[in-house]
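R.M. (postdoc): so does anyone remember the format we settled on? I'll just put the C-alpha cells first.
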C-alpha cells in the first residue's frame, strides 16, 4: 500500500483503489466465491454464443432453427449480469464518476473514505432492496411453475434465473458492506 505522500502521483481511479478495499482479500474468502460466480457467468456467455451460432447455422444451412434461442437469451442476460456484479464491484470495475472521489482521496483522505463508505452503504442497501423485492417473485415462479416460451414448442422455467438474481444481489450487497467497512476503517485511520 503506498504512503500518503505517494498518492498525489496517482490518477483518481488508482488512488481510490490503492486506499480502498477494491481487490483486497475479503473475510471468509468471500472474494473467491464472487470469482466463481463471475467464472460461471463467463461460461454462460460462451454457451450462449455457441447456442446463437448453432441457431444461425441451423437457419441458414438446414432450414431448422434451434427452438427457444430468443427466450433463453432474454433470460440469460439478467442472469449473467447478476452473476458477475459482485466480482465486478470487488475488483473496482463498477461504473462510477471518479472525478470528485479521486480528488477527495488525494487531498482529504478521511473525507474521501467517509464519502466512499456512504456510497458503499447505499449500494448495499439498494441491492438488499432488490433481493427482498425479488424473493416473492422467486417463490411465486417455483409455486406456479412459471416458464417462458410456448407450450408444446419450447418452454424454459424462470425460477433458475430468479434464483441467480437473488444470489447475485445478495453477494453484491455483502461485497458493498465489506468495502464500506474498509472505507470506514480508513476514514477513522484504523486498519481494516
Amino acid at each position: 500500500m503506498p504512503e500518503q505522500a505517494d498518492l498525489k502521483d496517482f490518477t483518481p481511479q488508482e488512488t481510490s483503489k490503492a486506499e480502498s478495499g477494491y481487490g483486497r482479500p475479503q473475510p471468509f474468502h468471500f472474494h473467491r466465491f464472487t470469482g466463481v460466480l463471475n467464472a460461471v457467468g463467463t461460461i454462460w456467455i460462451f454457451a450462449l454464443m455457441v447456442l446463437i451460432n448453432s441457431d444461425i447455422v441451423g437457419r441458414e444451412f438446414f432450414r431448422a432453427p434451434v427452438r427457444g434461442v430468443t427466450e433463453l437469451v432474454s433470460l440469460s442476460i439478467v442472469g449473467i449480469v447478476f452473476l458477475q456484479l459482485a466480482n465486478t464491484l470487488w475488483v473496482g470495475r463498477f461504473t462510477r464518476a471518479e472525478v470528485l472521489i479521486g480528488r477527495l482521496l488525494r487531498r482529504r483522505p478521511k473525507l474521501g473514505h467517509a464519502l466512499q463508505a456512504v456510497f458503499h452503504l447505499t449500494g448495499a442497501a439498494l441491492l438488499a432492496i432488490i433481493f427482498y423485492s425479488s424473493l416473492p417473485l422467486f417463490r411465486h415462479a417455483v409455486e406456479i411453475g412459471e416458464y417462458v416460451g410456448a407450450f408444446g414448442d419450447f418452454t424454459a422455467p424462470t425460477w433458475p434465473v430468479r434464483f441467480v438474481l437473488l444470489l447475485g444481489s445478495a453477494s453484491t450487497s455483502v461485497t458493498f458492506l465489506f468495502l464500506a467497512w474498509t472505507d470506514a476503517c480508513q476514514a477513522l485511520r484504523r486498519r481494516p
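R.M.: ...and that's the designed sequence above, right after the C-alpha cells. Also worth knowing: The longest strand covers residues 147-150. The CA atoms of residues 79 and 117 lie 28 Å apart.
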